[in-house]
Amino acid sequence: MRSNLKVNIDTGGLKRGARLVVKIGTAVITNNKNAVCDKVINSLASQISTLQKEGFKVIIVSSGAIAAGVHRMGWQQKPKKISHLQAAAAVGQVSLVETYEKEFKKNGLTTAQVLITGEDFSSRKRYLNSRATFETLLNENILVIVNENDTVSTDEIKVGDNDTLAASIANAIQADLFVILTDQKGLFTENPTSSSHAELIQSVHVDDEMLNRVAFRSHSEFGTGGMETKIKAARIVARLGIDTIIASGFEADILLKIKSRNFVGTTILSGKKSKAISARKQWMLNHIKAKGRLYLDAGAIAALVQYDKSLLPVGIVKIDGRFDRGDLVVCMTETGVEVARGLINYSSFEAEKISGLLSEQIEKVLGYIEEPEIIHKDNLILISSSFEDSKTTGANSSKAEQ
Ligand code: GLU
Q1: For 81-112, b where at least 16 C-beta lie within 10 A, e where not — what string?
Q2: How far is the CA of 362 from the centre of ligand 1 (A)?
């Protein structure tokens, strides 16, 4: 497993060998006629070629397939029907990757295409397979261009958007920095399209309350998520100590500026060092959907956070959701702040019956006992940096993941 972060946002500069996941939005690489923009891709290619020569590793997550498909099929606007969107993506992905291949080749780079879905990451086997492919391609200095596999993605199984997909990839390859290139200069205090008072936020901590207020939706026709999904993606990578930069894909030499830490765009600081959690726990944390929530009393939270103990039924005050034994659940404070996630030993039906009870009472109430713990500490991951810090400082505030 890779350990030391090669980024030091405060003291400037990305260190050689750093891994960057760069997500590029539809509005950046397609023009107003929805055609893929060779010039933009060429500029990215030349910057990435410089970065590669200096030893950096880059993975691109590129949107734009649907827009390019709509253009290629001569449609006047983005269709509403999901099967039409999927068809457009299938057509447009070819133009998209063709342009990447052409422009990157001019800059001496070899490209590879990976189409993937969030569902692929929820299967441990597929996750490991894709991670091994990414590692091999990175080591061979191949420029990987990822997009969501829109043909097999429906609303239900879709990651939701490429921001989230890119965040999952950044976590899977343990990136040093996550960059989101969009048609905006970064995050603003207000919506810059409707307010003249909007100011660019240069840097903000991922747990800052301000982020809940600036997550307005995008106005662009093809971008699916707006700032909301970008902030959500930043929260996902922050769990592994990765910082995010949201910046304009139209700014000249944007990636080179980011490399040398010229202050461009908005930096969302994770506030943590890379977490030394096992690969299995990392996967659990990033790729398994939580099925329920357990609200815990102060004693249980102290046991988890300060003493690294397992979660016992006695500390549970409320349960939300339906889950089975082995499912992932979120552990919250009574006021709804996320503390940990873990694989639960009891179904929601059983957990309802034994919550608040001592472990010795489990057998009497259920007629059997699976384990004395509701979640064993080996299957439990603490979430917030502030909670982890509270082991030494006693501080304990954090935001729940949205
Ligand atoms: N996969 C979609 C495309 O390439 C984009 C999804 C998104 O905008 O996040 O067009």
Answers
A1: eeebbbbbbebbbebbbebbbebbeebebebb
A2: 48
- Tell me which of 30, 36, 63 to substitute to probe ligand 1's pocket, judged by most ligand atoms within 8 Å of the beta carbon: 63
Q: pLDDT for 313-356, tens place per residue?
A: 999 999 999 999 889 999 999 998 889 999 999 999 999 999 99
CA angle 332, 168, 133 (to 5 degrees): 140
Does 108 share its domain with 139? yes
Q: 238 and 271 in contact (C-beta within 8 Å)? A: yes
Residues 241, 101 within the same domain: yes
Report the nearest atom of ligand 1 relative to the CA of 150. 1
Q: What confidence tens digit (pLDDT) does each residue in 236-289 have?
A: 898 888 999 999 999 999 999 999 877 789 999 987 655 556 777 877 877 788
Give the C-alpha separation, 197 to 175, whole Å: 35
Co-location of 151 and 243 in the same domain? yes
Which of 24, 148, 229 to probe ligand 1 with, by most ligand atoms within 8 A of CB?
A: 148
Q: Are strands 177-182 and 19-24 parallel, antiparallel or unpaired?
A: parallel
Residue 5 lies in a domain: no
Average pLDDT over residues 51-60: 94
Mutation test of ligand 1: which of 151, 152, 224 has the most ligand atoms closer than 8 Å to its C-beta?
Answer: 224
**253 Ramachandran zone, left/alpha/beta (phi>0; psi -120 to 50):** left
**How much is the pTM?**
0.76
Burial status of residue 353 (CB atoms within 10 A of its CB: 0-12, 13-18, 19 or more): middle
Give me the number of domains the chain comprises. Answer: 2
Which two tokens mark 390?
Answer: 């509270």
Residue 1 lies in a domain: no
Q: What is the dihedral of CA 197, 183, 233, 164, to 10 degrees?
A: 150
CATH number at residue 67: 3.40.1160.10
The answer to the question of residue 347 being in a domain is: yes
Spatial contact of 273 and 5, defined as CB atoms under 8 Å apart: yes
Task: Find the domain containing 201 and state its range.
Answer: 19-271
Tell me what percent of the residues of the chain surpass a pLDDT of 90.
Answer: 55
Is pLDDT larger for residue 99 or for residue 272?
Answer: 99
Q: Ligand 1 atom closest to Cα of 88?
A: 10
Distance, CA of 192 to CA of 213 (rounded, Å)? 13
